[in-house]
Design brief:
Strand content: 15-25%
Low-confidence stretches: 290-314
Number of helices: 11
Helix content: 10-25%
Radius of gyration: 26 Å
Structural class: alpha/beta
Distance between the termini: 40 Å
């Protein structure tokens, strides 16, 4: 997209057109599907090594792009697209780019860190750069203040950095469509909201600074609602969540909000989520230090132990979190928030939910009795005390679409029972670090479609007994264990 290869087709999203291009390449066996998403769409691709070698050779002959994999070889002259694979951590990249800088538009580097001197060279000699992808990060914790000089940048990706601070000049990158900082810890200036062409803001561990009242008076208000082209938004919460700005991002497809203060957990927030009807993926994580009482107070509810029970507050809180019943495109939902029970009304859940990921919920009632009713659920993940009960039952006739079940760090779980006829489509079962679960799930061998069983620090007593006894049951189990 950043290179301009995607040709518009009416009102179709550029991302959808690009996905169509990719499917054409797959059908022609030019690329292979490495992994699919839960909804069947392609997550990762790969290319056969022989076909890759041929493609690289043809691209070099056509002067389309070049891959540099050997530090001893001569760098290409006058190339528009360059990928660097050789580790040049002790090598000055500005020397490498000297001959190719005048026409370079795309630079992808897997070669380690980039020195401050090299940044200066990029800014001075390669001002027409549109794609800058640094998979191995850069040296130093602050990006150069003059990065704003690369005004033609449309794609900026910096990963494996650790801790970084974006300079205020980031707001000069007015053509930027994608900013991907991976899992780097980062402080982003509030002027990021000026970049109205942004389509993907993927910064999992990043905070956006607050705009001061003085700055608002001098420069005018800046808010997230100005990024109306956003398709993807991954950020830590902050003051930018105040008001109803989030609800105006009607094109948003993926939203992830991590570790944010309950100061911003108000009615307007949940109303904004309800307006994002194009969402396909929603991830909400609340800090564990905030108690249920604090959450309820910030929702504008009254905590009265004498008149209202804790159960009522849990249901009210989750009902607001689940204001997604009319989100017909929402197929992935991830919630990390302390609750007590799940809502029993299936109508409160997204109608086409395919994947549900719960952690730190501390549910006291067996969630399987409710979740088994979700008609389309294919993947269920319960992590880190999502459930704090001792027994879990998958009753007959439930989870008929479920293909994958992951139980991780359920410290109180002692027993999992799979009744005959339950989870008939299950292919993968993972039980990791459920320390009190000594026995294998009852009814495990009745799961005739099970292809993979992964056990770590769980069910070890039963495994040892079956291995010593041998027999047909052990042979069946041993074939699917990994």
């Amino acid at each position: 997209m950043a290179e301009g290869f995607i040709q518009r087709r009416g009102k179709e999203r550029l991302e959808d057109i690009a996905e169509d291009y990719m499917h054409q390449l797959i059908h022609r066996s030019l690329i292979q599907v490495a992994e699919r998403r839960v909804d069947g769409r392609v997550e990762y691709c790969r290319m056969h090594d022989l076909l890759r070698d041929l493609a690289v050779l043809e691209a070099k002959d056509a002067n389309f792009f070049e891959v540099h994999e050997n530090m001893d070889s001569t760098f290409p002259v006058s190339i528009r697209r360059l990928a660097i694979h050789q580790n040049l951590i002790n090598y000055d990249i500005s020397q490498c780019l000297h001959n190719s800088s005048s026409r370079l538009r795309s630079l992808v580097s897997f070669s380690g860190t980039i020195r401050k001197k090299s940044w200066g060279y990029l800014q001075e000699h390669i001002k027409l750069l549109t794609v800058l992808n640094l998979e191995e990060g850069v040296r130093g914790r602050v990006l150069p203040r003059d990065i704003g000089e690369l005004i033609h940048l449309k794609f900026l990706c910096i990963k494996q950095f650790g801790n970084v601070k974006l300079p205020s000049s980031i707001d000069r990158l007015v053509n930027l469509q994608c900013l991907d900082l991976g899992s780097n810890d980062c402080n982003i200036p509030h002027s990021i909201w000026k970049l109205k062409k942004l389509r993907h803001l993927e910064c999992w561990n990043c905070k956006v600074s607050s705009q001061s009242q003085v700055n608002k008076c001098v420069n005018g208000y800046l808010g997230v609602e100005q990024l109306t082209n956003l398709q993807t938004l991954f950020l830590k919460g902050g003051s930018w969540l105040e008001g109803d700005g989030l609800g105006k991002l009607t094109q948003l497809r993926s939203l992830a909000l991590r570790d944010w203060s309950t100061l911003y957990l108000k009615t307007e927030f949940f109303e904004s989520i309800a307006k994002l009807t194009a969402l396909e993926s929603l991830y909400l994580s609340f800090p564990e230090k905030h108690t249920k009482k604090t959450l309820v107070n910030h929702l504008g509810l009254v905590w009265e132990k004498k008149n209202v029970t804790i159960d009522h507050h849990s249901k009210t809180l989750l009902s607001r979190l689940m204001l997604v019943s009319h989100h017909v495109y929402l197929c992935e939902l991830s919630l990390g928030v302390m609750l007590k029970n799940l809502p029993e009304q299936i109508e409160l859940y997204p109608p086409k939910l395919l994947k549900l990921f719960l952690w730190r919920c501390k549910l006291t009632d067996d969630p399987m009795m409710i979740l088994k009713k979700l008609p389309s659920l294919q993947i269920l993940v319960l992590w880190l005390d999502a459930y704090v009960g001792e027994k879990m039952v998958c009753s007959s006739g439930g989870f008929f679409q479920l293909e994958r079940l992951e139980l991780y760090g359920l410290n109180e779980l002692e027993e999992l029972i799979v009744e005959r006829g339950a989870m008939s489509s299950l292919k993968t079962l993972e039980i990791h670090y459920c320390d009190k679960m000594e026995k294998l799930p009852r009814g495990l061998l009745e799961l005739t479609n099970l292809e993979k069983l992964s056990l770590k620090d769980s069910c070890q007593k039963s495994i040892k007994e079956m291995e010593e006894a041998g027999g047909e049951d052990w042979d069946k189990l041993h074939k699917i264990m990994c």
